[in-house]
Amino acid sequence: MRDVLRLGLIGAGRIGQVHAATIAQRVTTATLVAVADVNRAAAQACADQHRVPRAMDDPYELLDDPGIEAVMICSSTDTHAPLIKAAARAGKHIFCEKPIALDLDATAHALRAVERAGVKLQIGFNRRFDANFVRARRAVESGEIGEPHILHLVSRDPAPPPIEYVKVSGGLFLDMSIHDFDMARYLIGSEVEEVHALGTVRVDLAIGEAGDVDTAVILLRFANGVFGTIDNSRRAAYGYDQRAEIFGSRGAVSVLNNYPNNTVLSTGHAVYRDLPLNFFMQRYVESYQREIEAFVRAIVEDTAVEVSGHDGWAALAIAIAAKRSWQEGRPVKVSEAVPVSTSHWMSEGQP
Amino acid sequence: MRDVLRLGLIGAGRIGQVHAATIAQRVTTATLVAVADVNRAAAQACADQHRVPRAMDDPYELLDDPGIEAVMICSSTDTHAPLIKAAARAGKHIFCEKPIALDLDATAHALRAVERAGVKLQIGFNRRFDANFVRARRAVESGEIGEPHILHLVSRDPAPPPIEYVKVSGGLFLDMSIHDFDMARYLIGSEVEEVHALGTVRVDLAIGEAGDVDTAVILLRFANGVFGTIDNSRRAAYGYDQRAEIFGSRGAVSVLNNYPNNTVLSTGHAVYRDLPLNFFMQRYVESYQREIEAFVRAIVEDTAVEVSGHDGWAALAIAIAAKRSWQEGRPVKVSEAVPVSTSHWMSEGQP
Amino acid sequence: MRDVLRLGLIGAGRIGQVHAATIAQRVTTATLVAVADVNRAAAQACADQHRVPRAMDDPYELLDDPGIEAVMICSSTDTHAPLIKAAARAGKHIFCEKPIALDLDATAHALRAVERAGVKLQIGFNRRFDANFVRARRAVESGEIGEPHILHLVSRDPAPPPIEYVKVSGGLFLDMSIHDFDMARYLIGSEVEEVHALGTVRVDLAIGEAGDVDTAVILLRFANGVFGTIDNSRRAAYGYDQRAEIFGSRGAVSVLNNYPNNTVLSTGHAVYRDLPLNFFMQRYVESYQREIEAFVRAIVEDTAVEVSGHDGWAALAIAIAAKRSWQEGRPVKVSEAVPVSTSHWMSEGQP
Amino acid sequence: MRDVLRLGLIGAGRIGQVHAATIAQRVTTATLVAVADVNRAAAQACADQHRVPRAMDDPYELLDDPGIEAVMICSSTDTHAPLIKAAARAGKHIFCEKPIALDLDATAHALRAVERAGVKLQIGFNRRFDANFVRARRAVESGEIGEPHILHLVSRDPAPPPIEYVKVSGGLFLDMSIHDFDMARYLIGSEVEEVHALGTVRVDLAIGEAGDVDTAVILLRFANGVFGTIDNSRRAAYGYDQRAEIFGSRGAVSVLNNYPNNTVLSTGHAVYRDLPLNFFMQRYVESYQREIEAFVRAIVEDTAVEVSGHDGWAALAIAIAAKRSWQEGRPVKVSEAVPVSTSHWMSEGQP
Predict the structure, then answer these.
(1) Segment among A108-112, B25-29, C318-322, D323-327 with least mean pLDDT
(2) Which of A223, B38, B315, D94 could pair with B182 as two cysteines, CB 3.0-4.6 Å apart?
(3) Which residues, 6 or more positions from D215, have their beta carbon under 8 angstroms from its beta carbon?
(4) C258–chain A nearest CA distance, Å
(5) Total number of domains in chain C
(6) Which of D267, D270, D276 minimises the CB distance to B273?
(7) How far is CA D160 from CA C200, D205, D279, in A?
(8) pLDDT band at C81 (very low <50, low <70, confident <90, very high)
(9) B touches which chains (3+ CB pairs under 8 A)?
């Protein structure tokens, strides 16, 4: 029997810590052997908490460790592309949080480096591993609901991120809706060709002052003729709201929210239940486990990853088109947002 | 105590028969005293079934009857505007099925005739009287969900109408979505300013050959900043699908479907329930009762009707803009669809 | 075509008024031609409200009217048996509210009079006509859930009746649980052989002072081996609670409550909906219509009634056994509660 | 910071393996240092799988290890009492699966040994740590539903255990219903005084031949006046069915099932969802984690355990009374089932 996969973690911030805990407690096929973070203390704290032998501040030192077979890139977005290229050169398999970069050219460069190195790259679109969305995808794929006609996605956060984060995030379309664009492609199994995004500021004026929106509705047209709509908000009073519906020729499938319990109360005022799970770390805890297990499996069994670099590229292309649509107040073809250097990927599918 | 209101019914087709049955069996404040239909036999059959004393083929003969205080116009769409004008001249109060006409000028002429005559006119947007939508409106009006931000409407029929009907109906946007445009205005309490409609043929090629669509998704922008989306299909495999969701600053309200029973089964295959109520006559039976009761009450108590001629005009204006948006493949401002002669109604509100 | 059935109503109290309104507004196959109530003014008011031609204070005068084909007996329980006998002698078909009497001998006398006269007698166990319970029965009858093993009934009122009513009602087991005993027999399709009832006073001490209970749990053993439990309370804070579950070899069926709308709200506090329909007149409005339609149909088509006098007798037998079980603090066989004169009905089935 | 608690596992059968996996993957406050099983190979396999340093066949060898602070007793029921006594003598804290023994005297002996040794003993009633039941208990404790009046528990397995297990298990009441008796005491917060159990064979004749039942309904009377009912079956066609309802003076709380996803499908046949989680290892995975975390916490912080030996004793006393009730066909007071030597525990509460 092959031993467990030896992983290095780059970035010990919020999502890095989620992955570290997941690997330590839930993933039996891999183990963390090093943590790197530019904040040396954060790296050490994360290593201590999860019994990881080494902590360091330089990610390139981690990439030099020949005992590490694969890396989890969880650092800030601007470091993703350079780290992917360096990791690829070092012959490490790569799991990278979305987005790879905020522009398509930088993304393309990183993907080409991965391709040349022949390593595996999986993007952290964890919702693809959520039991609800997996079930919905199966309903489409199996023909249970017939040919898909209409998609509706709801994706609302319980609270906006810190304004400092908003400023460097690329904005709602590139930071938040990008998950929905990936989900749209995954559920429908077709590329998005045109997008029309309406955006506004309803939650926090500071978000508007930072040049971003906090509330958006997006209209999608897919290559296979499906129409889609997306509802986004940075703040739902009742918590994390993550739903989907696909309507098809033979039926419909609806993804509802997850709750902390299945207990219903009836009093003189109402019939009620507790609020949905409040944030992504509760709602998606099992999807984080499964995405890492899938990554490890793809490496160990040398099979294709389930979420490729092309998936990262394609979701970003839609996000950039959506942002432009909002900025210019008109529907935008995704092809308009794609530079010539990468436009062949629009029809070629997975790199 | 005032006696019951004496009503005349014009048009004994499908919806006319629904109203006749409703008045006969459920509305205690009104009684039908005459039925007119160009098909004399249909008028007679309807009269016989509901014990209505008189049947005739000429609606103008009905309008001449001094014993009739108000009329229900349920004949084909092309007759609505002339009959409204004639009824107004005859001093009858008027309940008219939607739409008043397929163009805004004809609609405006009819409304002006009503205004001059000083009679009441209520439009048959029955969903405003459905207990579910009433509850959702109350959630918005009362502030229970805070300021509204996003609206989503689902409106799918169990089966498309006969192709002959499709040809004269004005098409999906003017015939079917018009209910949703009214619902959008009602639930949000603001006018729609811009609409972007995608339409396609997925259900029946004959509908496309008739120049219409059977599947549509529509993006709405309201004057108060709310964004909305509408899902329409002429055929849902599981029956009549009529839902809504309004997301606001302090919460959300969701209208779900009605079912023939609240019985759930669990077997070795699934946990399941019977399909939703299969057509508008089951789902909306109580709303038909309440809209007629409201019409009678407005007459008897001399108060404003709950669904005015302006509501009919405004929903039609959105529908025409939606149809143009679909035809021209671009977002269309509702004001673009409004002729100069009626454009002052866009800001003036209820005529 | 046969004309509508001419009905007389005896008793214009709460349930009598429900039936009068139902016949006037919803039942197209029958018409009320006379109302009798010992309170002459009540009879007149009911007649006026529903346009019934005659009102009187003497029910026997009503029974003398040769134009009346069938009567609805809705007067106080102590008058049921004598009125059934008189109506039978007068050759009228009979619809009688439950219970026929508070003892089995009196019930038997009345049933024998009906049998001799050859008229039809239907008992007012309206829940058998509720769409939810009908669906559950169908799940048992069709084999959809296999052989039934376990039954659970929940039946809770929103508020206790007036204490004066409690005193003459026969108590919770004969007045309220009797509906559940009928439902138990109907859903399982087998006779109850043994009952063990626990009763107590939790809602209102005055009920205890009147010698009755307001809270009860009842264990049932059926002839076909099924076990059952019943939850009863005179006051559920959240309204009218009427549910059932049947567990069988191939699955289970659950009857849930009916609600005034299917609208769900989510705020910062909870995900909630409005309370269930608050009383039997809302929850069971359609079952009242259907039970009268079924009665009329049985007469017009000369077929067996759907709820027979034997069903009334059998539910009463269980109720008397339950009351004795509570009084004596032990399980009681239903056969113990049956006088010799009627004991042959326990095995003979429908009289 | 205190280091993690060093645990030894006795018994590497089904539940022992569940606990080993839970400790290895989910419990960060404890670690397994040894596994003992009379089947040496099973102990070794379990140790290998979860990286436990030592495996052995003699549990007494494990108890001799001074490095072990606490033990998990997961061996067959007949070994529980002797192992508890030995572990207590060895000064180890004890987590023991239910039941401690199949009779109350042996249970009492074991509890007295624990008391004398001053070690902690927690019983494996894991449902007390399930988020649904915890929420229901909170609804009672907080007064959210007022004073409790009626309890209903549903507890059905997806399939009966092997017939060899049935024979040594003590039967349905001592093996399966015992969980419900504990749940009843936990949810209502009062002792059960009387029980009336009906039992029968509907699932598998071999169970009847082994002298046991597979289907049961149990009536409970609590010291505080609450009435309760329990539904049990060894086979629900649709999977693991674990629900509860408590009705109180101000409302009701209902525990529903957990599902593998919150995805609903609608097709031409039905509105449906996948079956509930199919067995205790899925449904209760988090409760297993929390019960061990609670056990570790009670040791580390030297506080009372949340499920005491007295809780094990009390649930067993109800189970023995239920079994006698079924055998003798009459209600049985729990006090009848209690030997003189332990009867003082009925009023004294927790030992």
Answers:
(1) B25-29
(2) B315
(3) C149, C150, C227, D199, D200, D201, D202, D203, D232, D233, D234
(4) 12
(5) 2
(6) D270
(7) 37, 12, 12
(8) very high
(9) A, C, D
Nearest CA in chain C to A237: C268
Burial of B129: CB neighbours in 10 Å, binned 0-12, 13-18, 19+: buried
**Inter-chain touch A247–B228, beta carbons under 8 Å:** no
Q: Which of C157-178 are b and which e, b meaning 16 or more Cβ less than 10 Å from the residue's Cβ?
A: bbebeeeeebeebbbbbbbbbb
ipTM: 0.95
Among C153, C195, C202, the strongest candidate for a mutation testing the D interface, having the largest count of D CBs within 10 A, is C202
CA distance D152 to C156: 14
Residue of D nearest to B158 (CA): D268
Collect all residues of chain D within an 8 Å Cβ-Cβ radius of residue A139: 263, 265
**Nearest residue, CB atoms, D132 vs list A254, A263, A267:** A263
A241: domain CATH number?
Answer: 3.30.360.10
For every residue of C168-234, DSSP letters joined together read: HTT-HHHHTHHHHHHHHHHHHTS-EEEEEEEEE--S-HHHHHTT--SEEEEEEEETTS-EEEEEEES
Q: What is the pTM of this model?
A: 0.95
Subunits with 3+ C-beta pairs closer than 8 A to D: A, B, C
CA–CA separation, D223 vs D194, rounded Å?
Answer: 9
Question: How close is the nearest chain A Cα to the Cα of C253, in Å?
Answer: 19
Average pLDDT score over residue span B171-199: 97
Domain extent, residue C55, equals: 5-127+288-306
Encode pLDDT of B212-254 as tens digits.
999 999 999 999 999 999 999 999 999 999 999 999 999 999 9
Cβ contacts of D264 within 8 Å, gap of 6 or more = A253, A254, A256, D271, D272, D273
Q: Is the domain of C75 the same as that of C10?
A: yes
Chain D residues within an 8 Å CB radius of C196: 196, 219, 331
**In chain B, which residues have their Cβ closer than 8 Å to the Cβ of A229?**
152, 217, 219, 229, 231
CA distance C161 to chain A (A): 18
Return phi, psi of residue D320, to 5°: -65, -40
Same domain membership, residue C141 and residue C270: yes
Phi, psi angle pair for D11, to nearest 5° = 105, 110
DSSP letter for each residue of A261-275: --EEEEESS-EEEPP
CATH number at residue B122: 3.40.50.720
Pick the residue from chain A with its C-alpha nearest to B156. Answer: A247
Determine whether the interchain pair C251/D241 forms a contact, defined as Cβ–Cβ distance below 8 Å.
Answer: no
Q: CA-to-CA distance for A103 and A94, rounded, in angstroms? A: 20
pLDDT in tens, D161-186: 999 999 999 999 999 999 999 999 99
- For C26, the closest of B25, B254, B262 (CB atoms) is B25
> Are B100 and B222 members of one domain?
no
Size of interface A-C (CB pairs under 8 A): 48
- Cα-Cα-Cα-Cα dihedral sign, residues B287, B292, B295, B301: negative
Peptide bond into C99 cis (omega under 30): yes
- The 10s digit of each residue's pLDDT in A266-296 is 999 999 999 998 877 778 889 999 999 999 9
Residue-wise burial string across C125-145, b where 16 or more C-beta atoms lie within 10 A, e elsewhere? bbbbbbbbbbbbbebbeeebb
Q: Are B71 and B56 in contact (CB under 8 A)?
A: no
The pLDDT assigned to B351 comes to 40
D230, D301: one domain: no
* Residues in A touching C275 (Cβ below 8 Å): 266, 268-271
B86 plus B155 within the same structural domain:
no
Comparing alpha-carbon positions, the chain B residue that sits nearest to A329 is B331
Residue type, B253: V
> By CA distance, what is B272's nearest residue in D?
D272
